[in-house]
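Record Probable inactive serine/threonine-protein kinase scy1, 803 aa.
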Amino acid sequence: MLKFLKGVVAGSGTGVKDLPYNIGEPYPSAWGSWVHYRGTSKDDGSPVSIFTLSGNNPQDGHLAAGRNGVKRLRTVRHPNILSFLHSTEAEAFDGAITKFTIYMVTEPVMPLSEKIKELGLKGTQRDEYYAWGLNQIAKAVSFLNNDCKLVHGNVCVASVVVTQTLDWKLHAFDVLSEFDGNNPAAAGPMLQYEWLVGAQYKPTELTKSDWTAIRRSPPWAIDSWGLGCLIYELFSGMKLSSTEDLRNTTSIPKSLLPDYQRLLSSQPSRRLNTSKLLENSEYFQNKLVDTIHFMEILNLKDSIEKDTFFRKLPNLAEQLPRQIVLRKLLPLLASALEFGSAAAPALSALLKMGLWLPPEDFSAKVLPTIVKLFASNDRAIRVGLLQHIDQYGESLSAHVVDEQVYPHVATGFSDTSAFLRELTLKSMLVLAPKLSQRTMSTSLLKYLSKLQVDEEPAIRTNTTILLGNIASHLNEGTRKRVLINAFTVRALRDSFPHARGAGIMALCATSSYYDMTEIATRILPSVVILTIDPDSDVRSKAFQAVDQFLQLLKQNYERVNSEDTPGTAGIGISSIPGNASLLGWAMSSLTLKGKPSEQAPVATANSSTTTLTSSASNPNLGAETATSTTMVHASSSNDLSEPPVPVSPTSTDGWGEIENGIHDDHETDKDGWDDIEPLEEPKPSPALANIQAAQKRPVSVSKPASQPKPAVTSLKPKTPLKAAKEDDDLWGAIAAPVPRSSSKPLNVKPAASSSVDADDPWAAIAAPAPTTSVKPLSAGRGRAKPTAPKLGAQRINRTSSGM
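=>
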């Protein structure tokens, strides 16, 4: 018989040496004669609990009851009953004495009395937690009594343990036995090991060993009495010493008192069934119990209920016990999000709860769920992740960002939603510093090249700002190839004033990356044009930038003259502290309502007023970087005195074929700016073009409006220009475009004919006279309205068909 019991109890090992767990320090208390130890697994180091029971005689009653408890715990499974993992029985010899020990391994738990001391809850939070714990124990007792027809026989504080998620679980099954009340032939004790139960926990019929009365009673009679003892010990904070102590109800909550008295009824048949306790008692109706219950049956709720619940959860979590929120609610919420049963608003609650965790716990419990959520196709989840990226972005490792996060985030660059594209762009302020150089040069810069010609002006503006912020994370070769082209060829010629202002500030903030030749020949000529920009804020920034770059050139000149630095080219001068950083720009929203297809300075009477708000977070930037709130007012008439703004960057403006698309082949080193020809002859800004045209327009007799004005050919430069490659044409960035004609392409430079005249040093870059065949400044890629037909008689040139 003993061998049979050993076979039932034994696990994978035959002795303590074969126990695959390490035994640690014991807890101060445990049920009965058991000793409760902390333990860890030898395989992965995961925590466990190890219970041991020792005796000198293998037929000792305590060991026999212990074997019964191990067998019962191994076969009974319920969410509110302690989970069994492993067991074994070993013999140890101490001189002439043989010691027999039972080892039972379970999930990691702590005695309830110790956990209550550790939490130290008071007032309402204590009552809410007790209500949740009693709810769980009542479910376990109801399962044993009503579903399994088993009697636990010793429900008290010592028989309850608490898991790492603060759930209460029932154990101590040594006395557990079947209820045989329906068997008329049954005789003798129903509970074989009832002598292990203290007299203070026994109801009257069990104290008298009246087994006939016990068998006539309902199955829950004994355990309902034990549940009453548990309630008394919880709220009194003292261990029950005698049955008479149960009459002291001063510490019992008023809402629970009627049910407490029914549980301890002197008549077994009138004692309250634990299942009815859960249904009827108003004590269990509180915020904590309702919240956890909702989370546990989340799959049964519809989308409206989920959305309402998760929107209230962040504020509700602040009112619940903090430890319970972090150990119980947070894992439930993370699991629900990971498996798709939670709605998008749950992400805000998850991140808010995560902020209450220490950094190491946040990385272990919250970050894995967030990384998995980036693969979600739910647009609302993606928006939530990007909106709150500043809360967790710094905790992500560079490897995780480069390999797992960025590939999913990058899909937002080409999303059809402008809002999602802008959020994706702004998220790069946090993620880009963690990307590898290969990912930045082969992928990120390609997407930014496309976004810099996006149809949304706010996205174009923030792209320029982002480039200025991540410039320090680019290698030197990439900076040389990208920055100037991105800021001067595109940003400074954008039709949106804020985009031009951002380009100027980006140039100033990245001035330390340019040598003196680039500043003098490429940056200053592009910035000087904007000193006559129609927008006053752009003009102000342009003058400040000119002053800054001239100061850098002057410093370099002084250093060269003093022979402190032997050379001019390749000397990088650090930027002025006032423009040393662009951090924070991209985090201000410039999103416009609608898609502005025509970026004209004057709006029609039907156009809506648009508000643009931008705030800089860097206080050192001062007036140069802080963009105040700007209102674009609607007007019913055109302001003829204001020159038109430059055309949209998405139109063909003579700057060559700018690579706008995103290529699938990411193995190349092209990043979207390689095909830009920044040194070709571009269109001048509208104001400068008007001035040049007025200076070169000859005095002639006016002709009818219907007659086309012939091109003036006598205003060509008197002196020839030296032939040079496009890369050597340092003034190409501000040279006026040649007149378009049917015999020459747009990008062909005019041929030079004679030497430079000393009396006219500007003749080499003088603009030719405007002709009627030149494409209007507002012409774009099909965005401008067609030109209205001219009134009056028109001359029609017809040619014969050759018949």
